[in-house]
């Protein structure tokens, strides 16, 4: 049999996600598009983050920049987890160096009425951006994404980034009914945001539950997992064959629960080895990760040693997507990222 024509559906990233043979370990980096790239800083100059996210030509250019520069195996859609919240009418902004800030936090039932359901016609720009991108990317897959209900709820309840998530946990335990209503609404919004991207041609999706690691396993299972499960299972029903990646930070204790919530790929941060992650999830899931983003600042020999270890550990997984354990730090030297891509490809070539 001759090889199928190169296409996103037969790309190393999608194949690894579906536990199929790959020609090499696919690599991409969370936050590969962003401030580490001078070409990004140039096109973003004077344009607020959320305005950039809603301008298809700019989204396309920024998403493609790291693909051109690093030769990564996937593009990640340039957007933000709060874009769908903005689309349903919430007053919010992304403050540089801080993160999303919500003008009026959501803490009561009346507040929840300010958060209507998302419908695809509220985000025509997302459809347009994804279509433009898929046309430009050719065989390189585009990864769509959304924030998971807990991580979104934390921003909404706290009003911005939080160290301890205390108001969020107070609501979760103090008014579980309102908490579940809020998370169910957020699951609807995230689900539509993901499906709009897949309908327009995204070949894989990542659900970011960045702050889930702040929860105990019991809290995760009772108050959060059902809502993430709803997003993931609705997506799988509508888009079979599009691999799902479920990721959080500091989630070593939650890996089995996050895997079983419904995913093909479990994202692993740098605090847990891929070997331990595989063991904790029964070796049944593809893994994504998990280079510590701070190691990109170490001497090349030390970095190379760690990359080799991760590629080796990944060989024991039913599928491995090389990534960082969290996002690229803004002061990272982009040339180091390019070298890591080349190294992973060289080490893993079959
Ligand atoms: O390459 C990519 O990953 C690009 C797409 C992307 C962005 N945000 C762009 C962005 C993705 C996937 C996100 C998701 C996102 N946004 C998450 C989940 C991922 C994670 O890091 O855990 C979270 C928690 C957010 C919320 C958010 N938005 C934060 C914490 C910040 C950083 C604030 C800062 O300035 O340090 C943002 C802003 C943001 N989102 C930037 C980018 C490139 C920086 C804004 C800028 O360049 O001016």
Provide the fold topology.
Layout: H1 12-17, H2 38-44, H3 49-53, H4 56-70, E1 75-76, H5 83-87, E2 92-95, E3 99-102, H6 109-112, H7 124-137, E4 142-147, H8 149-158, H9 166-174, H10 176-199, E5 204-208, H11 217-238, E6 244-247, H12 255-260, E7 265-267, H13 274-280, E8 286-291, H14 300-315, E9 320-324, H15 334-348
Parallel strand pairs: 1-4, 4-5, 5-6, 6-7, 7-8, 8-9
Antiparallel strand pairs: 2-3
Helix pairs in contact: 4-7, 8-9, 8-10, 9-10, 10-11, 14-15
Radius of gyration: 19 Å
- Quaternary: single chain
By DSSP, the count of extended strands is 9
- CATH level-1 class: Alpha Beta
Shape: globular
Which features characterize this protein?
single chain; 350 residues; alpha/beta; TIM Barrel; seven-stranded parallel β-sheet; two-stranded antiparallel sheet; 15 helices; 9 strands; globular; binds coproporphyrinogen III
């Amino acid at each position: 049999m001759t090889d199928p024509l190169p296409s996103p559906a037969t790309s190393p990233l999608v194949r690894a996600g579906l536990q199929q043979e790959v020609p090499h370990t696919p690599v991409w980096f969370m936050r590969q598009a962003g401030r580490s790239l001078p070409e990004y800083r140039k096109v973003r100059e004077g344009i607020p983050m959320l305005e950039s996210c809603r301008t298809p030509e700019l989204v396309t250019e920024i998403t493609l920049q790291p693909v051109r520069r690093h030769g990564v195996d996937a593009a990640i859609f340039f957007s933000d987890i709060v874009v769908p919240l903005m689309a349903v009418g919430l007053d919010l902004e992304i403050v540089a160096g801080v993160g999303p800030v919500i003008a009026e936090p959501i803490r009561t039932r009346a507040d929840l009425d300010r958060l209507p359901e998302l419908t695809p016609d509220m985000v025509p720009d997302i459809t347009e951006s994804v279509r433009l991108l898929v046309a430009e990317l050719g065989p390189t897959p585009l990864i769509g994404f959304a924030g998971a209900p807990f991580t979104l709820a934390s921003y909404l309840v706290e009003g911005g980034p939080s160290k301890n998530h205390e108001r969020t946990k107070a609501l979760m335990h103090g008014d579980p009914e309102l908490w579940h209503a809020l998370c169910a609404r957020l699951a609807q919004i995230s689900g539509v945001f993901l499906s709009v991207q897949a309908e327009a041609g995204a070949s894989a999706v990542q659900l970011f539950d960045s702050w889930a690691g702040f929860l105990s396993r019991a809290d995760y299972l009772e108050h959060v997992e059902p809502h993430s499960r709803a997003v993931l299972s609705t997506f799988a029903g509508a888009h079979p064959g599009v691999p799902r990646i479920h990721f959080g930070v500091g989630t070593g204790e939650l890996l089995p629960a996050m895997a079983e919530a419904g995913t093909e790929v479990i994202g692993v941060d740098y605090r847990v080895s891929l070997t331990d992650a595989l063991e904790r999830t029964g070796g049944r899931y593809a893994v994504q990760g998990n280079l510590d983003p701070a190691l990109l600042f170490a001497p090349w020999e030390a970095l190379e040693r760690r990359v080799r270890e991760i590629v080796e550990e990944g060989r024991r997984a039913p599928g491995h997507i090389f990534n960082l354990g969290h996002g690229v730090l803004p002061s990272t030297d982009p040339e180091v990222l390019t070298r890591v891509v080349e190294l992973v490809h060289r080490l893993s070539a079959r």
